[in-house]
TrEMBL record:
Functional note: Aspartyl-tRNA synthetase with relaxed tRNA specificity since it is able to aspartylate not only its cognate tRNA(Asp) but also tRNA(Asn). Reaction proceeds in two steps: L-aspartate is first activated by ATP to form Asp-AMP and then transferred to the acceptor end of tRNA(Asp/Asn).
Gene: aspS
UniProt: ATP binding residues: R219, D220, E221, Q228, E482, G534, L535, D536, R537
GO cellular component entries: cytoplasm
GO MF annotations in UniProt: aspartate-tRNA ligase activity; aspartate-tRNA(Asn) ligase activity; ATP binding; nucleic acid binding
Known EC number: 6.1.1.23
Identification of the protein by name: Aspartate--tRNA(Asp/Asn) ligase
Residues covered by the Aminoacyl-transfer RNA synthetases class-II family profile domain: 140-555
Residues involved in L-aspartate binding: E173, R219, H449, R489
Record region (Aspartate): 197-200
Description of how the protein assembles with itself and partners: Homodimer.
Length: 587
């Protein structure tokens, strides 16, 4: 059994007889002396074997990388000139006396410091080796510390950790469910929880007052770079607290977390209404590190001949907006072409631009393929509104409102990053005053958050003007990432029915799907609300990691499979028969 971790040894241990357990990180033969760097989760220590201890020397000579060993030896100062200031244990070494090989290892599929040369698929297939890398160990250790700090904060504030079921009826968070066939109920399926939403509300009806859970959630979506089919939420629900109190308490939690873990003061989080965020930043999760803003110019374009602009300018569902990039006139044609392709991802059909070369010359000082279509007068009015200076570039978006906001919103961040325009390292905020509903492409309405979110108006007003009604929802945003979101909930049955009505959910369907909730609301449901934070994304931000897979021990790939276990996999005919499932042959 070890007496110390490798990485913990320091000068103060010199003279002590110690025992280490760990892996051979590297073996070096220095002309008659063998050096083993022994690694465990705390770090590396150099162990030296002299030929005068024949048996252990021979063993040390025989070990290979990643063998598991036990070493007994004496901690001593490194000889002068061999101290390594880059290593925490670089002042000492261990004179190896006894060596036991606890297990051998095949040559690993990649050396730990060669992970970059192998593809991510190799790393994921041999994740247990990849996870031996100090960077991965650090990230998962950090994650453990964060969850611990969160548990402590919530526990100190009277929250109870209560588990909710994994085998459920579907919860409507808007994504596709993962389904599990029931053996005992032929033809019926469980759904894995997209979130513990309804259960946490029922825990409030049950009087627990403050609940939290570090909960696994499952959503069968087409994966983007920062999504996983199963992910972890810090799920929170409270009774008798309004949005101010809930936001205050959770803002404090995140502030304390950054302060204690990273020594970063996030300060007070500003609030911004959803409509303002969309208008100024083209996003409901604006990245406020970058100062640039979208400016509406539809009023200046409505009367021009040029249909590309005039059309959306006159369309009540259209938007024409401009984004001024200070110093952007230096952008090359090639880069502008790249940006044009980039906004195409969001549905923009092109990217018009004006470079401001010599403003004092009027329209002649503007370089642009579109000025001739706008006319001098309009072009100069736009320049005036945007308060441009020589050396700036202005990009334009003209299309449906959604396309313009999303395309210019994303371009704003891309250009900001490319041109290093961030004005601070951390920019948190709350986005509030979300609409209750949004129109779907098919002309129906859907809940912007989820259908249990309380509106900030009466049921009558909601029914009369569903598309302008606001909700009592809030999102916490950090550096353009949605860290968490939640709402005050409906605790009144009549209001809940109204919302289902607006959503076109019939009484029968509501009864069938959420009858238990509607019932519970009749039996003394307290006013309640909560939110959920995405733990994986929080850890990503806190550790400055690019990919969500780097902060999850065993992540799934972009195609929602596990490279190591090869899940999902086929099952036997017998298992299918037991479940009464017959597979349809794909043609
Ligand atoms: N259940 C919500 C979600 O997963 C969070 C909440 O409203 O508390 O996004």
């Amino acid at each position: 059994m070890r007496s110390h971790y490798c990485g913990d040894l320091r000068k103060e241990h010199v003279g002590e007889e110690i025992t280490l357990n760990g892996w051979v990180h590297r073996r070096r033969d220095h002309g008659g002396v063998i050096f083993l760097d022994v690694r465990d989760r705390e770090g590396l220590t150099q162990v030296v074997f002299d030929p005068d201890r024949e048996e252990s020397f021979a063993l040390a000579d025989s070990v290979r990388n990643e063998f598991v060993i036990e070493v007994r030896g004496l901690v001593r100062d490194r000889p002068e000139g061999t101290v390594n200031p880059d290593m925490p244990t670089g002042e000492i070494e261990v004179l190896g006396k006894e060596l036991v090989i606890l297990n051998k290892a095949e040559t690993p599929p990649f050396q730990l410091d060669e992970h970059q040369q192998v593809g991510e698929d190799v790393r994921l297939r041999h994740r247990y080796i990849d996870l031996r890398r100090p960077e991965m160990q650090d990230k998962l250790r950090f994650r453990s510390k964060v969850t611990n700090a969160i548990r402590n904060y919530l526990d100190d504030n009277g929250f109870l950790d209560i588990e909710t079921p994994i085998l459920n009826r579907a919860t409507p968070e808007g994504a596709r469910d993962y389904l599990v066939p029931s053996r005992t109920h032929e033809g019926s399926f469980f759904a894995l929880p997209q979130s513990p939403q309804l259960f946490k509300q029922l825990l409030m009806v049950a009087g627990f007052d403050r609940y939290y859970q570090i909960a696994k959630c499952f959503r069968d979506e087409d994966l983007r770079a920062d999504r996983q089919p199963e992910f972890t939420q810090i799920d929170i629900e409270t009774s008798f607290m309004d949005e101010e109190a809930i936001m205050g308490m959770t803002e404090n939690m995140i502030r304390e977390l950054f302060q204690n873990m990273l020594d970063i003061d996030l300060g007070d989080f500003p609030r911004m209404p959803y409509a303002e965020a969309m208008q100024r930043y083209g996003s409901d999760k604006p990245d406020l590190r970058f100062p640039m803003e979208l400016v509406d110019v539809a009023d200046l374009m409505a009367e021009i001949e040029f249909k590309v602009f005039a059309g959306p300018a006159k369309d009540p569902k259209g938007r024409v907006a401009a984004l001024k990039v200070p110093g952007g006139a230096q952008l090359t044609r090639k880069i502008i072409d790249e940006y044009t392709k980039f906004v195409g991802i969001y549905g923009a059909k092109g990217l018009a631009w004006i470079k401001v070369n010599e403003l004092e010359k009027g329209a002649e000082g503007l370089q642009s393929p579109i000025v001739k279509f706008l006319g001098e007068d309009v072009a100069m009015k736009i320049m005036e509104r945007l308060e441009v200076q020589n050396g700036d570039i202005v990009f334009f978006g003209a299309d449906k409102e959604k396309v313009v906001s999303e395309a210019l919103g994303a371009l704003r961040i891309k250009v900001g990053e490319d041109m290093n325009m961030a004005q601070c390292e951390w920019a948190p905020l709350w986005v509030v005053d979300f609409p209750m509903f949004e129109e779907t492409d098919k002309g129906g309405v859907t809940a912007l958050h989820h259908p249990f979110t309380a509106p900030s108006c009466s049921p009558e007003e909601l029914k009369a003007n569903p598309l302008t009604a606001l909700s009592r929802a809030y999102d916490m945003v950090l550096n353009g990432c949605e860290l968490g979101g939640g709402s005050v909930r409906i605790h009144d049955q009549a209001m809940q029915k109204t919302v289902f009505d607006v959503l076109g959910i019939s009484d029968e369907e509501a009864e069938e799907k959420f009858g238990f909730l509607l019932n519970a609301l009749q039996f003394g449901a307290p006013p309640h609300g909560g939110l959920a934070f995405g733990l994986d994304r929080l850890i990503m931000l806190m550790t400055g990691t690019e990919s969500i897979r780097e902060v999850i021990a065993f992540p799934k790939t972009q195609s929602a499979s596990c490279m190591m276990t090869e899940a999902p996999g086929e099952v036997s005919a017998a298992q299918l028969r037991e479940l009464n499932i017959k597979l349809r042959k794909t043609p």
